[in-house]
Amino acid sequence: MSVYTTVSAEELDAWLARYALGGLAAFEPIKAGIENTNYFVTTERGRYVLTLYERLPADELPFYLNLMAHLAKSGVAVPAPAPDRTGALFSMLCGKPASLVERIDGAPRLSPDAGHCAAVGEAFARLHLAAQHYRGRLANRRGPAWWRQAARAVRPYLSAEQAGLLAAELRFQAGANRMRLPKAAIHGDLFRDNVLFAGERVAGIIDFGFAATDFLAYDLAIAVNDWCSVADGELDDARTSAFVDGYQRVRPLAAEEREQWPTLLRAAALRFWLSRLYDLHLPRPGDLVHAHDPEVFERVLARRVAAMPRLPDARAA
What we know:
The protein is of the alpha+beta class. It has ten helices and nine strands. Helices cover 41% and strands 15% of the residues. The model has no long low-confidence stretch (mean pLDDT 94).
């Protein structure tokens, strides 16, 4: 659990007065998350998720929250932000920008099968189609410039072999940084814990804290690396095919996206290996902070470098 900012019942109840949602009935911290502080909040009129944004500057929040509102309005399974009495989607709470979004009933599938992957692939493609009509733009703050900065910061903590893998991949990605692929707003973090299921149906895609404007196929690669990898970092063929086929039933990939797929998988693995190394070795002060194991994505990256997997045949595209 990560709780960087502790909120009292009195502070929260006073803050809720700006909403037409009734008074505070109950609240509890959410046992997940690294970037932000999150609470489940129940008011007299509904159930919500409160997020206090620990790193995001307030001037970037309209991109994230308006994106969620746009997607929800477009029929995508995402929680809609709750506007306050003035129509604003966020305001300050305990010195941090904070928002409320609808709470979606469901649970993540942390050990997904091919059926779950197919369902998420379809839902993700619908998100990407709707995102292409979103006007907001925001550079990816965890893009190549951040990779280089983070690499310098974590290098003292790496073995010679790890440092070699990191340096080689940064050189490789620098040469691939001129790709011209379809761009739009991406989720940026579609891991298994960010998709809620109700039975076998995708009930909601949550946690847009890493949303940005970037390559849609890169966003798909981020998801596939998490949903479809086995313990040694290799891709599971059945889950990968199900995820990609589900996606392409809704949004077929362009030839250029298919061609760059191996490079995008490597870029996605590099990004999360670096962020986990950074969180492990250079943590922020906070209560009950949990850092994910960076070795998971070190193995994924090493496998992607060794195998350079191509996209599965688009049987259902």
